[in-house]
Amino acid sequence: MSYPRITNNQAERVSRSVTFSNIKHIFSLGTKAVLDVGCSEGYYLRHFGEGSVGVTIIADHVEIARDHGLNVVLKNVEDSDFSLHKTFDAIWANNFFEHLNAPHSFLMRMRDHSSQDGILILGVPVIPYFSWLTYFKKFRGAYAVSHVNFFTRNTLIETVKAAGWLVIQARPFYVKNTIIDSVFNLIAPHIYVIAIPKKDFVYPQKRLMSLEGYN
Predict the structure, then answer these.
(1) For the chain, which terminus, N or C, has the lower number of CB atoms within 10 Å?
(2) pTM
(3) What band does 187 get if pLDDT is binned at 50, 70 and 90?
(4) Using an 8 Å Cβ cutoff, are 97 and 122 in contact?
């Protein structure tokens, strides 16, 4: 499915991105119905398959994306009543998770929007394993002033697992080969977690007891 060209610098960067190209081809996103969370003007959305939907809280972005033939809705995924009343082959959220007030609630909600064989692709700037790397601007992305959550690769994986997702991969996707790419995990400033919903997931009893006060 092709769309009219979105002419701005961000769209060009996405189109030229080797990392995004690797992920798109490995997981066949060009033929899948993808939920693009925090889609902005649809820079990634225009590369996904038929039935894909973008979500944003910025009305101007909805208007621009729709002018380019994209299906974008004005909704806040952190609203308790958020629903699109459908499921998707893949859920894409890039440079979004670190901004959320309640990342765990978001992950639980996305389980309801994932098809039975769906995947979650969560791209997040992370604190590098070697702390001295943060002296260099390229490795300080996790500390952007607009972020309210701060992850290392390991804490990001554990956060996703705690919400009932089975983590399949967590790497930068600089190259398609998993073994070679994993070499960069210790220094990558941005990690993509690939996960599938655990079909038999239930909270541990202790967690359920702690939630009683919220009901």
Answers:
(1) C
(2) 0.91
(3) very high
(4) yes
